[in-house]
Design goal:
Blueprint lengths: L31 H16 L24
Length: about 70
């Protein structure tokens, strides 16, 4: 752990073999969609022998502005 968050492998596994982390605690953006996706990957990697790595290439992003620029 450091100021950026909990350190994890590409499979979201911490340095403790049976502990995985996902979402804001690993230092990524505060995106609900990204956190849900990472938690699904972590659960898969906990229960299945075939580990998967998160693929963020199709991850949507959003920017909120005030005043609203577009609807």
């Amino acid at each position: 752990y450091d100021k950026q968050g909990i350190k994890v492998s590409a499979e979201l596994q911490t340095n403790v073999h049976h502990i995985f982390a996902a979402g804001e605690v690993i230092g990524h953006s505060k995106s609900m969609h990204r956190s849900i996706y990472e938690s699904q990957v972590a659960v898969n990697n906990i229960f299945h022998r075939n580990k998967i790595v998160p693929d963020y290439s199709a991850m949507s992003t959003v920017i909120f502005t005030n005043p609203v620029v577009s609807t």
